[in-house]
């Protein structure tokens, strides 16, 4: 069988299974999520054995240790995956929520209610915990899910999905609501991207290359996630203690994630006072600064090029520049930001107001670290990714973002 | 210049203009909308002269009279276009609406607020009134718009856009928020579909062929609109007087539009009583019935094929079938519906509940004509189209559907 035929076959089964899942009650879905969590722990040996195969293969291939660390599962990490499923069970069911409703002038009752998409395709890299997270969030939001992880995690993902499917079936739901996309080749990814009509939405999670290729080649609607070239702009009217703390936190709290700061902009009026402090604080934390001329005067600062302004380092590096005014900061952000998260540090209400209005990003922060752009921090309880597109969802996506809506109109023989 | 260069140039100008429009106040936008309405009437002669050229060309080309009627503008129709702009001015501004907001446990203030998309591309057919409607809705929702009407209406559209741009400029806004896409060839449509990054969303309005080609070829995100193969299912527990009235209204009130009924399903238990009545009522109204064996027993009913179940006639034709039960009706709708609007006629609460839950369409109606799926009828005040996709917007799209959102987070030196 070709990859296309295989993929369309699993997608078709997912489509059929999604119909009964869409009608499942919250109680049924929550019981299933708890059963999935129990099964992950009860059958930890199988999952860890599968994972050990992936780790051994990666080591034999000379994979760098930090990537192997992401790939590796432990009893603790399995416990975390199980807890994640239980947390999703604790969240409100988005399906059936009435988004708006009214009685029209002619007496028709109008309601807009949340319904599942149907079938969601996830294309993701590295971490096998995404497999359980995505299965849980999709199940709770009433969607069947087709999972296409990276081939480096194939044994882990196969083991996890086998365990989850058994738990789903034992709970009385159709196990085809959770399926792996068969095949390891790029052909199977391509087939998934072309399964318009069978798959309702594709969510790629991973590096910029993966996301761009899905966005360009997919005929299935895509929700673009995650590339973050995030800025912190320290305004003329900034409290410099807050500024140093925010820059340091935004850059170093966890540098490998999309909401870490990658660029620092400083208003010229505070440069003389701020630069020595912020350079010292960053360098002490092990950060390499790629700076403009003003920054390059400090020991250890590398000279920045346009490439640095564009860069999502995902490492302990930061681009840094002094700007003459707020307008120049806004212009820099307009030119280089990826539209994920940008922050201003200022005590000036007018500057904050302009920054919030004019920066066109999924999240715009005042006097807070970029690291707060996160479904957990925002109180959504679970997050399938952070959308950087404007259609459908923008910013952290929780359960409601995993649904569509339908209009329900009740009359009593109404005609026009 | 190639079409691509030309289109990218206007899109770039629209992008720049969209930035100031996004910051315009409601008062500024409403004053501009009234100025646009005034200008349409004050310069009616220019517009009617442009339209006369299009009509003359269409007549010389042997265009059918009903298409020419759609193309033709009159003083009355211009008055309607102007009134449409004034109506949009009267609607609430979606920009800045707080969709949700809270204070997080750590004291961060979180708000999700509506913001414009930026630049919207409209690709549409025939009627020149869409040019003014789309310009008004986009302006009010803070979006610059690139208009690509059909070449048969090119002189009308050029005249309308020239008048509207002058009015926008006289009101103090950048006239590049309303622009025609240059060029008449398909190359310019293609360039618009590939202007990802410059154009935020494309909305095709027209026949199934146009919409499919945009959906397949566009790298810019698309909101799919309008194809309607709408069903009316008359249940065993239907009130047959209501059923006849609803079927007749859904089919004949205006047969050329997407929310007209195209298929009739009748429960076998009421077929004997209903069929003679509904066949007589439809035929009296000039409707041609394409029926299954049960319907084909009546004089003048044509035998239906699978093509009829799939058909969006947009004419005084209807496909008709007797089904053994509700399950068969649901299965027929699942197989053939375009997911626009489907209606059940029943007095049985259980049947209504199942139909509403299981029919996966943008609008599901109980005891009401399919003709109610409409932005005006739903009380939205203005409608840019009816989305039949699940991402972003589903069903009639008013002003809020023409926006994205952004998260605004206010702290006081918050770090993680």
From TrEMBL, chains A, B:
Q: What main location does UniProt list?
A: cytoplasm
Q: What are the UniProt keywords, alphabetically? A: Amino-acid biosynthesis, Cytoplasm, NADP, Oxidoreductase, Proline biosynthesis
- Where is the Aldehyde dehydrogenase domain positioned along the sequence? 4-287
Catalytic reactions of this protein: L-glutamate 5-semialdehyde + phosphate + NADP(+) = L-glutamyl 5-phosphate + NADPH + H(+)
Q: Where in the cell is it found?
A: Cytoplasm
Q: In which pathway does it act?
A: Amino-acid biosynthesis; L-proline biosynthesis; L-glutamate 5-semialdehyde from L-glutamate: step 2/2
Q: What class of enzyme is it?
A: oxidoreductase
Gene3D superfamilies cross-referenced by the UniProt entry: Aldehyde Dehydrogenase, Chain A, domain 1, Aldehyde Dehydrogenase, Chain A, domain 2
Q: What InterPro entries has UniProt attached to this entry? A: Ald_DH/histidinol_DH, Ald_DH_C, Ald_DH_N, Aldehyde_DH_dom, G-glutamylP_reductase_CS, Glu-5-SA_DH, GPR_dom
- Coiled coil regions, renumbered to chain: none
Assigned EC number:
1.2.1.41
Q: Does the keyword Metal-binding apply?
A: no
Q: Which domain of life is it from?
A: Bacteria
| The UniProt record lists the keyword Cytoplasm | yes
Kindly name one Pfam family recorded for this protein: Aldedh
Q: Which family does it belong to?
A: Belongs to the gamma-glutamyl phosphate reductase family.
What does the UniProt record say this protein does?
Catalyzes the NADPH-dependent reduction of L-glutamate 5-phosphate into L-glutamate 5-semialdehyde and phosphate. The product spontaneously undergoes cyclization to form 1-pyrroline-5-carboxylate.
Q: What is this protein called?
A: Gamma-glutamyl phosphate reductase
Q: Could you tell me which species this protein originates from?
A: Nocardioides humi
């Amino acid at each position: 069988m070709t990859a296309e035929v295989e993929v369309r076959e699993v997608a078709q089964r997912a489509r059929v299974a999604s119909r009964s899942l869409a009608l499942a009650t919250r109680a049924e879905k929550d019981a299933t999520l708890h059963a999935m969590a129990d099964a992950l722990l009860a059958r930890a040996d199988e999952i860890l054995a599968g994972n050990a195969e992936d780790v051994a293969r990666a080591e034999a291939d000379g994979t760098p240790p930090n990537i192997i660390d992401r790939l590796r599962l432990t009893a603790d990490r399995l416990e975390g995956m199980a807890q994640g499923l239980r947390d999703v069970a604790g969240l409100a069911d988005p399906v059936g929520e009435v988004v708006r409703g009214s009685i029209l002038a002619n007496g028709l009752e109008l309601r807009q209610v949340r319904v599942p998409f149907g079938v969601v395709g996830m294309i993701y890299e590295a971490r096998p915990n995404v497999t359980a997270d995505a299965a849980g969030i999709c199940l709770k939001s009433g969607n069947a899910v087709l999972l296409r992880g990276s081939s480096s995690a194939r044994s882990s993902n196969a083991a996890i999905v086998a365990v989850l499917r058994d738990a789903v079936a034992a709970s009385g739901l159709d196990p085809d609501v959770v399926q792996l996309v068969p095949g390891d080749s790029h052909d199977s990814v391509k087939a998934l991207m072309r399964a318009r009509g069978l798959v309702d939405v594709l969510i790629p999670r991973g590096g910029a290359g993966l996301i761009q290729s899905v966005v360009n080649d997919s005929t299935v609607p895509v929700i673009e996630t995650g590339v973050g070239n995030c800025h912190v702009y320290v305004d003329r009217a900034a409290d410099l203690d807050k500024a140093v703390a925010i820059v340091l936190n935004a850059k170093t709290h966890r540098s490998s994630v999309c909401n870490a700061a990658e660029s620092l902009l400083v208003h010229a009026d505070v440069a003389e006072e701020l630069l020595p402090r912020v350079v010292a604080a960053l360098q002490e934390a092990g950060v390499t600064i790629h700076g403009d001329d003003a920054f390059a005067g400090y020991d250890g600062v590398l000279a920045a090029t346009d490439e640095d302004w564009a860069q999502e380092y995902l490492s302990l590096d930061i681009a840094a520049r002094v700007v003459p005014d707020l307008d120049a900061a806004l212009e820099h952000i307009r030119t280089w930001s990826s539209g994920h998260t940008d922050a201003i540090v200022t005590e000036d209400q007018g500057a904050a107001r302009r920054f919030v209005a004019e920066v066109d990003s999924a999240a715009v922060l005042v006097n807070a670290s970029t690291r707060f752009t996160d479904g957990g921090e925002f109180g959504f309880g679970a997050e399938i990714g952070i959308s950087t597109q404007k259609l459908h969802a923008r910013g952290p996506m929780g359960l409601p973002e995993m649904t569509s809506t339908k209009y329900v109109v009740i009359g009593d023989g109404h005609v026009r």
